[in-house]
User: Which sequence fits this backbone?
């Protein structure tokens, strides 16, 4: 089964019971790994209570003491409680009362100030109108928000004198107040709360400056007219049965990080705020009377070079009461641009980020969250809503991704080959090649290089590895000291091109076939690129794909944020490697649905097939892609794919031994017998139809090539016909759905077998049957099955026109001697169907390609 995992003890195992959460940030989606354990209360060590009354002290030392406490909290959990804040209780209570008055109104009254009517995301947001991320429910929360208005800022004397570039960033809208004027105290009380918070925030930010070893007034100018907003959050109690019935985790406000500098949140006593610690454990940030909760936002995290952490949080109101919270969000002046702070860089910690303006920052988040229709920035503060929830769009939520990440194998697996000279010599050529590509892959991050270095050995060793895994053994660390070499492995060590190009070429076979069909010069690399990758094929979205690649590349990174680490052109230019890495990592992500996993698999197969169809030398990247398929914990599908690649590789090797092929009238090839023994478990599995199909095809090729030298061998001819019929019979038995899932080269195999019958026995009823199946199953005229069906039809028609009776064809035994003309019909028609650009060019020399050599059989 696709989910069957060939288990090998991994060196690093992230325990079961984790979930990966996709969150939105200005950089696009980011991922956090969370424990599936029940949330527990945070201890005072985890989320400290800091008495900030001391920030008003005249003593710098005292203020610095607070700064240190804040720094400790900011660099660990990113959250703290502040007591001694000095905001009068009555101010808070009045704001709370206003919030209650507002939310208790009938919906049509709240609609008057609906955020949908706002240019800048001010106003009311109804319940269930936002979803913070794909794995959690719509937010049950209702909220009302408004943004900085200089007219209400007591530190502004004259609004008119504010410089225009600052004014341009103002996002206040008067309709917040005109549309709520029915509540007489609303504006006054809410604005009073905002003003108190603003004043406190301006004091607090000075302590943040100290905490960052900056002059205390460092941020003052940047917050003269800050993006300072308040939200009134109203969380009705979540009914218990709602949580039971829901298919996503029910949340009052979904997991998110706050966007800007910091947030100061007043919450009532009902509880529900949860904070994600670094171990992926949810901590209840229980209400503490007389405190605000303060947390770091993404912008501050960025300008501190990630020293201060913007921590994921959410709220769930499972109390029996309505819950309210009143967050105040502080950002810089909108026009302000800030880079990584000087105190946060040193020789070991270069700046990770470019300077960015506050407005650009907000805008990025806007873009990252797919907000449609909005004319400006995302809502005030926290995560912007997704108008199109991921889960709905993808149809396969990434909920509850287990984080059993692929283990990194720190021990060099193939270290000890020194004693085996010939192995060394052979590997040397590969390594040489790898060295020259080293420059090319230097764009790939260091960690990836080292990861790949483990894999940069021969296909053969990896094949042994996977076989070892298959037999429940450990990784084979000394494959070449194994005295019980399979014959396959010894032949497979010959990885170099006999022509002496020193290039690896796992598969010549299909190249030969290509050469026969299309002439030797065709370069398929465009086609490989044209196939795209798992993202361009819309199987999974880019952020998830990049995350998967990172899981593969940086298995130790259980929290991956830096999806921008991969080169931008990685997926386009290295589709096989990229898609293969996604495939492997997806195996560790059970909630990537089976269907999606299968699509990824098919994509990789298609790409792998195109790669093997390409003339050698295989590019480094292609080789990597093939090698990657052999990692520990490979699935059954991976094993099948590897087996198939090796099968072709061995066949190619045989085909390359022209003397042997010329002399052989043998119907058995030891290499293939050995291959079949080694891969017996895979081969015999009922799911391995395609593998058996390929196996017969390889025999067919071997017979046909032998026939070139021994044109009159009835044994070989009989064998070629027999195996062609077997292929076509098997094809007849396949489910349509299975056939349509197969990569194109299976259709090549089918047509090759059918053409073989056309060549020797045009009246074989299997030709007509295959033709019918091909045309019947093709979903449209463009499909390769349809085109090949037409090929067979035309061949038969031409043969009939040329006087070969197709009627009364009852016997398979009829062999038409010297039917070279049939071969030509076959060829013309085939080319016309598959390569329309070649049609109408008789004598273009196609017949004189390798294929026409065979017509001399
Ligand atoms: O209400 C709470 O506890 C959290 C609210 C919050 O995180 C926000 O509004 O950004
Ligand atoms: Fe928040």
Assistant:
């Amino acid at each position: 089964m696709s989910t069957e995992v060939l288990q090998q003890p991994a060196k690093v195992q992230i325990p079961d019971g984790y979930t990966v959460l996709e969150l939105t940030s200005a950089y696009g989606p980011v991922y956090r790994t969370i424990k599936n354990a029940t949330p527990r209360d945070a201890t005072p060590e985890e989320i400290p209570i800091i008495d900030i009354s001391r920030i008003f002290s005249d003593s710098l030392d005292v203020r610095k003491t607070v700064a240190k406490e804040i720094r400790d909290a900011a660099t660990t959990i990113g959250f703290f409680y502040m007591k001694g804040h000095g905001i009068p209780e009555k101010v808070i209570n009045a704001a709370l009362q206003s919030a209650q008055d507002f939310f208790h109104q009938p919906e049509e009254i709240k609609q008057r100030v609906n955020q949908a009517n706002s240019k800048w995301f001010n106003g009311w947001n109804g319940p269930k109108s936002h979803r913070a991320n794909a794995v959690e429910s719509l937010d049950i929360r209702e909220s009302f928000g408004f943004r900085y208005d200089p007219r209400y800022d007591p530190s502004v004397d004259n609004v008119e004198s504010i410089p225009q570039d600052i004014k341009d960033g103002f996002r206040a809208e008067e309709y917040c107040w005109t549309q709520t004027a029915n509540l007489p105290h609303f504006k006054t009380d809410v604005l009073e709360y905002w003003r108190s918070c603003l004043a406190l925030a301006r004091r607090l930010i000075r302590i943040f400056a100290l905490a960052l070893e900056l002059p205390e007034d460092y941020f003052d100018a940047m917050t003269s007219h800050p993006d300072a907003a308040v939200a009134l959050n109203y969380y009705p109690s979540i009914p218990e049965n709602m949580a039971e019935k829901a298919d996503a985790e029910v949340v009052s406000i979904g997991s998110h990080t706050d966007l800007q500098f910091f947030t100061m949140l007043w919450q009532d006593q009902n509880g529900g705020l949860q904070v994600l610690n670094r171990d992926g454990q949810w901590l209840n940030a229980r209400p503490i009377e007389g405190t605000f909760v303060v947390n770091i936002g993404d912008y501050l995290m960025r300008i501190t070079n990630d020293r201060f952490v913007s921590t994921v949080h959410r709220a769930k109101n499972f109390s029996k009461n309505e819950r309210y919270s009143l967050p105040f969000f502080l950002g810089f002046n909108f026009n302000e641009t800030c880079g990584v702070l000087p105190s946060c860089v040193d020789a070991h910690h270069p700046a990770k980020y470019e300077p960015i303006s506050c407005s650009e920052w907000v805008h990025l988040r806007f873009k990252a969250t797919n907000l449609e229709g909005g004319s400006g920035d995302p809502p005030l503060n926290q995560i912007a809503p997704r108008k199109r929830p991921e889960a709905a769009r993808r149809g396969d939520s990434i909920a509850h991704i287990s984080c059993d990440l692929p283990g990194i194998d720190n021990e060099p697996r193939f270290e000890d080959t020194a004693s085996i000279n010939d192995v060394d010599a052979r590997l040397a050529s590969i390594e040489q090649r790898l060295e020259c590509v080293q420059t090319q892959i230097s764009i790939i991050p260091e960690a990836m290089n080292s990861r790949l270095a483990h894999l940069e050995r021969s296909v053969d060793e990896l094949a042994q590895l996977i076989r070892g895994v298959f037999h429940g053994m450990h990784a084979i660390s000394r494959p070449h000291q194994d005295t019980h070499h399979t014959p396959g492995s010894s032949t497979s060590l010959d990885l170099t091109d006999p022509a002496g190009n020193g290039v690896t070429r796992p598969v010549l076979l299909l190249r030969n076939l290509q050469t026969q069909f299309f002439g030797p010069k065709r370069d398929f690399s465009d086609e490989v690129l044209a196939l795209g990758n798992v993202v361009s094929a819309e199987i999974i979205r880019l952020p998830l794909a990049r995350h998967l690649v990172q899981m593969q590349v940086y298995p130790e990174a259980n929290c991956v944020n830096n999806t921008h680490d991969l080169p931008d052109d990685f997926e386009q230019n290295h589709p096989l490697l990229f898609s293969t890495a996604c495939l492997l990592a997806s195996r560790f992500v059970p909630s990537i649905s089976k269907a999606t996993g299968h699509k990824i698999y098919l994509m990789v197969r298609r790409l792998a097939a195109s790669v093997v169809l390409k003339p050698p030398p295989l590019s480094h990247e292609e080789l990597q892609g093939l090698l990657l398929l052999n990692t520990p914990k490979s699935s059954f599908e991976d094993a099948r794919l590897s087996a198939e690649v090796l099968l072709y590789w061995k066949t190619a090797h045989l085909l390359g031994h022209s003397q042997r092929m010329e002399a052989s009238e043998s119907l058995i090839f030891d290499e293939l017998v050995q291959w079949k023994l080694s891969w017996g478990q895979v081969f015999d599995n009922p799911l391995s139809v395609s593998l058996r199909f390929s196996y017969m095809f390889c025999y067919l090729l071997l017979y046909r090539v032998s026939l070139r030298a021994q044109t009159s061998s009835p044994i070989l001819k009989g064998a070629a016909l027999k195996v062609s019929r077997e292929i076509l019979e098997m094809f007849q038995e396949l489910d349509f759905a299975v056939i349509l899932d197969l990569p194109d080269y299976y259709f090549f195999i089918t047509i090759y077998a059918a053409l073989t019958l056309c060549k020797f026995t045009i009246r074989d009823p299997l030709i007509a049957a295959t033709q019918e199946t091909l045309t019947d199953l093709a979903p449209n005229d463009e499909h390769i099955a349809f085109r090949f069906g037409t090929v067979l039809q035309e061949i038969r028609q031409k043969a009939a026109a040329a006087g070969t009776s197709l009627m009364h064809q009852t016997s398979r035994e009829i062999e038409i001697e010297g039917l070279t003309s049939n071969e030509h019909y076959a060829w013309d028609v085939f080319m016309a169907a598959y390569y329309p650009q070649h049609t109408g060019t008789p004598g273009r020399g196609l017949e004189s390609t390798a294929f026409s050599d065979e017509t001399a059989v």
In short: The first strand starts at residue 18 and ends at 25. The chain has a mean pLDDT of 70.
